Amino acid sequence: MQPRIPGRNFLFVPGPTNVPDRVQRAMMVAMEDHRSSRFPELSRSLLTDLKKVFKTEEGQIFIFPSSGTGAWEAALTNTLSPGDKVLASRFGQFSHLWIDMAQRLGFDVEVLDVEWGEGVPVERYEQILKADKGHLIKAVLACQNETATGVTSDIAAVRRALNAAKHPALLYVDTVSSLVSIDFRMDEWGVDLAVSGSQKGFMLPAGLSFLGVSQKALKATENAKSKRCYFDLADMIKANATGYFPYTPALPMLYGLRESLNIIEEEGLDNIFFRHHYLAEGVRAAVLEGWKLKLCAKAPKWYSDTVSAVVVPEGINAAHVIDVAFRRYNLALGAGLSKVAGKVFRIGHLGDLNELMLMGAIAGAEMAMLDVGIKVAPGSGVGAASTYWRSHDPIAKKKVSQEQQFYASHSTGSIQG
Ligand code: PLP
């Protein structure tokens, strides 16, 4: 069944996210010679501006024509040798997939299984690192934002754990669903390999991955014996030094990235992080106070500002909610993956978004839930989100105590008809 009436599809999966019109237009380019003398202007500007987004001055950024999974692989194979010991934690589908890749690539992964709904177990990391007197562990993996469960972990705390243990292992962080949406500080937090992708906070289609590499990690590439070819940083370093790529670059994506970085620069990273938090709080108000449902994230310290996984009541299949939302209301919600399949649906709240776009998602999810028999009060999600957003000023970044205050402080004093 097709959606029954026309109008836009409401895309609220946690990636790919909505691509702003400006970015779409910037990608409508004629193909050109990627070996021309002008091409380095583009590539150099991208590599320079990406450093600001990763918050690194020391590190080097790499752009691959792949989805985020490619940068996972590039991070591991360029810095490790077969049999190397890796410490990682699993608390959702994406932390699981990175572990699965590390195992398939022949590394010896010590996996800490954590309840889905919690994040990186920093104390356990610290104990294990302290006990590893011989420094056999070469890599520590952490997923900053587990997209499957809507859980954000404290990466600064992982760095503190490594420091407390005086452990030299490299720190690898997955920022695929957090970069440019939730604060990330590559240099300050001592992150050695930061993996990201284009289709979430960057507001681009899928197709580019980004990898931030510290000087320490670059040094480690010299001794890393893992087989690599397409993702070999050495080839990329050589070509990037002259402003080119070792193979044909995905030109429209690079022009889209240029425009996305312009938009990011105009809004400013701090404003972007604040906006994501403010929008996420409205969604959480809808779920917790309006619908009286639970989030998969077990406690506020784990709440993600980019995606909320909503737990449906026992006896209801969340896939049914998602299907009704899509077929009946033209709304795409994120599916529950693996262990939480059927138990949650996800609302992505990252990228190019504002309150009223999210109101569409909340209203649509609410209607779909009612249609499948979930007894939420009609209008309760929208009401709770509206109360939150109306009582917070996203520009002044403060709570507005009186409901009239926003109008009072923004009114021009005359209403023209
Ligand atoms: N890591 C996280 C946290 C993700 O959310 C995803 C995809 O959603 C990936 C890695 C894999 O990225 P991709 O699908 O771009 O290969």
Please describe the structure with a list of short key phrases separated by commas or semicolons.
417 residues; alpha/beta; 7-stranded mixed sheet; 3-stranded antiparallel sheet; 16 strands; globular; binds pyridoxal-5'-phosphate
Your description of this structure?
- The protein contains 14 helices and 16 strands.
- It is of the alpha/beta class.
- The chain has helices at 21-27, 39-54, 68-79, 93-104, 122-131, 155-164, 215-221, 233-240, 251-267, 269-290, 318-329, 355-371, 380-390, 405-410; strands at 10-12, 60-64, 85-90, 108-113, 137-143, 145-146, 151-152, 170-174, 193-197, 209-213, 294-295, 307-311, 331-333, 344-348, 392-393, 398-399.
- The longest helix has 22 residues, at 269-290.
- A 7-stranded mixed β-sheet has the order 2-10-9-8-5-3-4, sandwiched between helices. The chain has a 3-stranded antiparallel β-sheet with strand order 11-12-14. Strands 1-13 form a two-stranded parallel ribbon.
- A hairpin with a 4-residue loop joins strand 6 (145-146) and strand 7.
- Helices cover 40% and strands 16% of the residues.
- Helix 5 runs parallel beside helix 6, helix 10 runs antiparallel to helix 13 (380-390) and helix 11 crosses helix 12 (355-371).
- The model has no long low-confidence stretch (mean pLDDT 96).
- It is globular, with a radius of gyration of 22 Å.
- The site of pyridoxal-5'-phosphate (PLP) has 13 residues, from helix 3.
